[in-house]
Amino acid sequence: MTYQELKADEEQYVMQTYGRFPIALDHGQGAQLWDVEGKRYIDLASGIGVNCLGYNHPALTSAIENQIHKLMHVSNLFTTAPMVQTAKTLVTATGMGKVFFANSGAEANEGAIKLARKYSFDKYGAGRNHIVTLWNSFHGRTVTTLKATGQTRFHDYFFPFTEGFDYAAAGDLDDLKSKITDSTCAVMMELIQGEGGVLPQDPAFVQAVAALCRQKDLLLIIDEVQTGIGRTGSLFCFQQYGITPDIVTMAKGLGGGVPIGAVMAAKSCCDVLTPGTHATTFGGSPTVCAAANAVLSIVNDPDFLAQVCEKGEYLKNKILALGSPAIHGVRGKGLMLGIIVDEGQHSVFAQKLISQGVLVITAGKNAVRLLPPLTITYEELDEALAIMKTVFCN
Ligand SMILES: *Cc1c(COP(=O)(O)O)cnc(C)c1O
Description:
It is a single chain. The chain has about 400 residues and is α/β, with parallel strands linked by helices. It is about 40% helix and about 20% strand. The strands form four sheets. Strands 4-12-11-10-7-5-6 form a seven-stranded mixed β-sheet, sandwiched between helices. The chain has a four-stranded mixed β-sheet with strand order 1-2-3-15. Strand 16 (about 360-365) and strand 17 (about 365-370) form a beta hairpin. The protein is globular.
């Protein structure tokens, strides 16, 4: 089928909740993708930070293939080795306590919100249930995580939303303090706001928030759905901020392309969710955990993570060295970068880059967002940079 034929059927049969880019993708290899008409692209988007090992990575495809022949799904009424292994790896790598598996980022955040509220209920009784999040954040698309998201444009249509969220300005400790009351049980934040515009938090602010949470026994929830699993050059971004969160959520990169999310809690609160209080049919299936184990066996390695940092620095410096008057800076860490352009121009540049063969996405009001596979090669980066030069310097 050609793109035009597929697009016509898509418009007829698929709910039109996305303004999709005008290509249909067919297959991939490494950090390269081919569309249905045979055109090749360098992928700097990795399915929104999901395909951290790129396409057709032999360790990942064989782990999934071996597992689906053995056992695909059994539900959480039984124990399986792949699930236990994923949890053990995550806990060992971070010094945290225990893990609950979900199927997406929003679901992981739902689990974190429930955990924080029950932690407070168990200890202090009802009424201590508010969660402070940051303006410009993004935490998901369920009715609760939309309300947790600190962007008013997400608070339309779907009333009534879940109550109990208050918003503070990122980097403004006084504002955050003013939002904390006797009703507050947790603070939830991303360390680099992804959808909001690739906006890294100030470490001093984050450390002050962590200290405040400790002092008031508020749980600090770090949403690492986008920043986690090596994306910023450490297994989790919080490890670069000198903090010990109470809860870390993750999803996107964890399965390298299969749907898996997780809530990881510190030892002090990892036994709050008990039988009957939280559950999932699909979460933590042997299939997705086999994929996560393959991903973690590659990404959770100091040399691999050092290469993510090096490639990120290389990409950032080469973009700045283009000297384009259209580029006002590059934000981010590791291989989570935002090229800052004039407000509203990010989607114009994204469309141009895609039509020239470089897949990118956008973030916030002015960022062209780059989330390449962590395994991208320097040759692939150089090819993308040559195309960026023609797009940004003409
Ligand atoms: C993508 C994202 C989510 C939502 O994840 P889904 O898997 O789409 O539900 C939540 N938080 C952050 C920081 C994200 O980037």
